[in-house]
Write a structure and sequence with these properties.
The structure holds two protein chains of two kinds.
Chain A (H helix, E strand, L loop, with lengths): L3 E9 L9 E9 L6 H11 L18 E4 L2 E4 L12 E4 L6 E3 L2 E2 L2 H9 L19 H5 L18 H5 L6 H12 L7 H8 L13 H5 L6 H16 L1
Parallel strand pairs in A: 1-5
Antiparallel strand pairs in A: 1-2, 3-4, 3-5, 6-7
Helix pairs in contact in A: 2-5, 5-8
Chain B lengths: L4 E9 L3 H12 L4 E5 L15 E2 L10 H11 L6 H21 L13 E9 L4 E7 L5 H15 L3 E4 L1 E8 L5 E8 L5 E11 L20 H8 L4 E2 L4 E8 L9 H4 L3 E3 L7 H4 L9 H13 L11 E4 L5 H7 L1 H11 L8 E10 L3 E2 L5 E6 L2 E11 L4 E2 L11 H22 L13 H12 L4 E2 H15 L6 H18 L2 E2 L9 H25 L24 H4 L1 E6 L4 E6 L18
Parallel strand pairs in B: 1-2, 1-9, 2-6, 9-17, 15-18, 19-20
Antiparallel strand pairs in B: 3-5, 4-5, 7-8, 8-9, 10-21, 11-14, 12-13, 13-14, 16-17, 21-22
Classes of the chains: A alpha+beta, B alpha/beta.
């Protein structure tokens, strides 16, 4: 990589002064060490301090800097700048209300996450030491617990766009299955009851956008499929 | 201008590991608690911790908390307070088992217990050989822990104020802490949180350095607020440089890599740690390993075109083990070094990682400061835990996995102490009339200033100064220059200007406010480092070299004491190290070697 100018087209909207959102064309010179899209955004912000986005860990574990990058959801800190076609078009995550520029209101997303009771339920008195779990049982949680709640998946899902208030969405359902799959959790049937609804679970039509965009390589569709299987199994 | 006042029993600032752990205590005790965080809780920097949390569970081999205590005292280069260290090591099993009960997905041993791996400086039988003490969830322990604690708080109905930035600590004339002022980032609105107990869990300030493993949000907000309220900062010269940050990117590579068998090599592929730490080798304490690496690089045995990094090699390990125990590292290698660590070694350099000092606290989590001749007088209503606090358990150098333990133990004890004090039933003290004035004035100055300093440039100037003048190796004259340079930067940092004037999600304003906190930390660090004329732990000076009289440059006769930096007049005072544990015999002073 070398020094280079990179062209951007960025979604801008400041509710304090803009009547409507617009796309701003802007370019920035990057150093050889600027590798990721977040590095470029940092440079852009040094030029124009009003460009607004969330960011924190810059290594793909906190989930702050999710955005729509050339039409696909992803994390700015994990996206190689030089892999992107220019001008690089940056928009806020689709389907959620925009607060400002690339910052969306995530209330609905977290409401759905909270609706699945995202915590271990085990009503036995806690033992003196750890509860035992075999390595095989623990392995069932792999691909589930690593979710960073960035919302790339849910905001790429047409079913979530149409019914964000009724459909739990891929992130929330992945979390639901994370607890169902945990041998220490005792609330499986309660959790299935909670999702037994034409919208909450069954609005997933296996379009698999969630799998395509997940920056952690997780597979919510598979987890949702397993919940559906359990629903069917207990119905017969 | 009238500022809205929200009344709570307790306000917790920060929702990383320490804040969430405190919140569990308060919420489950039924107290009305507000938790403020600049980011959604699971985005706090605890999420980035990788390798594990220390506890002498003894799941794979014999272990004991007194061995852990010995290692921690030795790791601290005897600057840690032994009462606090005993308290922490003894509590470790309890707080780790609690996490498991909360649902944390620890890896497991074949018999179903929590998986434990070796880690730097953790040894069995008082320093004999490495022991498996680090309780891990693959290389995502912080993530698994933070999510489990957030989830527990959801269960406990904790009230969160997400994306609120605390601005200033409110103290009355008698010095009691009465809460904080805070800004809702979405609207720019300022509110007073009036509380009977205020707990700071604001994390570290690694962003004072140019090259750091820390997140953007680690801007020392708690330290800045404490300093502006006249509370001294303890042991700020001690910063940990983690041996293995990805060269160039700064992203952390866990010490767990070496715990699983990884080896550091120089340009001639030599396992150089054998020369520096014949016993513990690659699993010596972090300060020792970082200095060895910096020495290799300085002496021309670094790798790459510029010979400016060394290699972390795990290509000899079973790929299946790597993918099972270190999957995140494999991902980081590909993402930030362009290296597949199954096939090639990773380029690494010592990178600023952790602040050993902070707001002075007692091991109960209560904040203490000098008053009327008492060096450790309790500041009523004020508590702190985690990286922002200095109990002091890490002293001059923290052991890996003791940070997650610190935030659990002291997050919990700060919460417990607050509950205890609140149940003793004192009413809210009256707010001073000018409770919000300082915050309003700061914001108005930033919003309205013309011809002031640019935030981005001021931050860069600070980071370069800290990097060049207060790095892994320190030099007397460079520290002196560093002090005058950082005081120059401070002038700019007090005259910041922003172009963005919006009330909505104004990140330019947030960054300016953060810069005002960062500079307090940078200044405390540089002045404290210049003042300490010895080498100890992570603080190593060329004018305090290794001699027969002062092995490793450590001078216990003059410098076995904690630094207290007073932000009021940039002065330094000292207080004694507590060498007396709670129930066991003290760990006697001795020369530190691994």
């Amino acid at each position: 990589m070398s020094k280079r100018m990179v062209q951007f087209s960025i979604y801008r909207y400041d509710p304090d002064k803009d009547d409507a959102p617009y796309m701003q064309d802007i370019s920035v010179e990057l150093e050889p060490t600027d590798r990721k899209l977040l590095d470029a955004l940092t440079k852009l912000k040094a030029k124009d301090d009003a460009i607004s986005y969330r960011r924190s860990c810059r290594e793909g574990v906190c989930g702050s800097d999710a955005m729509n990058i050339n039409g696909k959801n992803g994390l700015a800190c994990l996206t190689d700048i030089d892999s992107l076609k220019q001008p690089i078009v940056l928009r806020p995550l689709p389907g959620l209300p925009v607060i400002r520029d690339l910052i969306v209101d995530m209330t609905q997303f977290f409401k759905q996450y909270h609706s699945i009771k995202p915590y271990l339920i085990n009503n036995d008195p806690p033992p003196e030491r750890e509860r035992l779990q075999s390595p095989e049982d623990r392995e069932e949680l792999n691909g589930l617990y690593e979710c960073i709640l960035c919302a790339c998946c849910s905001t790429s899902c047409p079913s979530f766009w149409w019914n964000p208030d009724k459909f739990v969405g891929p992130a929330g359902l992945l979390a639901a299955y994370r607890f169902i799959a945990d041998t220490r959790d005792q609330a499986t049937s309660e959790r299935l009851d909670n999702l037994e609804d034409p919208y909450r679970l069954f609005r997933c039509h296996s379009i698999m956008n969630c799998v395509d965009v997940c920056p952690k390589g997780l597979n919510p569709t598979k987890a949702i499929g397993k919940i559906k299987d359990m629903m069917v199994a207990r119905a017969v | 201008m009238s500022i809205p006042v929200l009344k709570f029993d307790a306000v917790i600032v920060g929702a990383g590991g320490a804040g969430l752990r405190s919140a569990i205590q308060l919420s489950e005790a039924g107290l009305k608690t507000a938790v403020l965080s600049k980011v959604f809780p699971t985005r706090s920097h605890t999420v980035a911790a990788q390798g594990g949390v220390a506890a002498s569970l003894g799941n794979s081999e014999q272990d004991h908390w007194t061995w852990h205590m010995y290692d921690t005292v030795k790791g601290s280069d005897w600057l840690g307070d032994q009462d606090a260290i005993e308290f922490m090591c003894k509590k470790a099993n309890e707080v780790v088992v609690e996490l498991e009960h909360y649902g944390m997905p620890f890896d497991r041993t074949d018999d179903g217990k929590i998986y434990q791996r070796p880690f730097g400086g953790h040894m069995s039988n008082f320093g004999e050989k490495p022991v498996r003490r680090s309780c891990a969830a693959a290389d995502r322990t912080g993530h698994a822990m933070l999510h489990a604690m957030y989830q527990r708080n959801v269960k406990a109905n904790t009230q969160f104020f997400v994306e609120w930035m605390a601005l200033d600590l409110i103290r009355d004339e008698e010095g009691h802490v009465l809460g904080v002022t805070a800004m809702e980032m979405e609207t720019g609105q300022i509110v007073i949180f009036h509380a009977r107990a205020t707990i700071f869990a604001t994390g570290g300030a690694g962003r004072i350095f140019y090259s750091s493993t820390n997140a953007f949000i680690n801007t020392g907000d708690g330290l800045g607020m404490a300093a502006r309220a006249g509370i001294p900062l303890e042991d700020m010269e001690f910063w940990q440089f983690h041996p293995t940050g990805v060269a160039g990117a700064g992203v952390l590579i866990t010490e767990g890599v070496r715990g699983e068998g990884g080896i550091l090599r120089n340009s001639s592929k030599e396992r150089f740690m054998e020369r520096y730490a014949p016993n513990a080798k690659d699993l010596a304490s972090r300060d020792v390993v970082s200095r060895a690496m910096a020495t290799e690089i300085k002496e021309g045995r670094g790798c790459g075109v510029n010979k400016d990094y060394v290699l972390l090699d795990i290509t000899h390990l079973d790929p299946a083990t790597i993918m099972k125990r270190l999957p995140g590292i494999h991902e980081i290698g590909l993402q930030f070094a362009g290296v597949d660590c199954l096939k090639e070694p990773l380029p690494v350099v010592p990178t600023c990682h952790y602040q050993m000092g902070g707001i002075p606290t007692h091991y109960s989590g209560r904040v203490v400061m000098p008053k009327d001749g008492d060096m450790s007088s309790v500041v009523p209503g004020f508590y702190a835990g985690g990286e922002c606090a200095c109990a002091s358990v890490h002293g001059a150098n923290r052991l890996g996995t003791n940070s997650l333990l610190d935030l659990l133990v002291f997050g919990k004890s700060a919460g417990d102490s607050a509950v205890e004090d609140l149940k003793a039933g004192k009413a809210h003290r009256d707010l001073p009339k000018d409770a919000a004035d300082k915050s309003l004035a700061r914001i108005s100055a930033i919003d309205n200033r013309k011809g002031g300093a640019n935030v981005h440039e001021t931050r860069l100037a600070m980071q370069r100064t800290m990097q060049d003048h207060a790095g892994v190796f320190r030099f007397g004259d460079m520290l002196k220059q560093g002090v005058s340079k950082i005081l120059e930067v401070e002038k700019a940092a007090r005259q910041l200007e922003i172009k963005d004037k919006s009330m909505a999600w104004n990140t330019a304003r947030t960054e300016a406010l953060e810069m005002e906190n960062l500079i307090e930390v940078a200044k405390a660090t540089m002045i404290s480092a210049e003042a300490r004329k010895e080498s100890r732990g992570a603080h190593v000076r060329d004018d305090a070299p290794d001699t027969a009289e002062f092995p490793n440059g450590r001078n216990d006769k003059e410098w076995l004491k904690h630094t207290l930096f007073s932000p009021v007049d940039n002065s330094i005072s000292y207080k004694p190290v507590n060498m007396q544990p709670l129930t066991v015999e003290p760990v006697e002073l001795k020369t530190r070697s691994y």
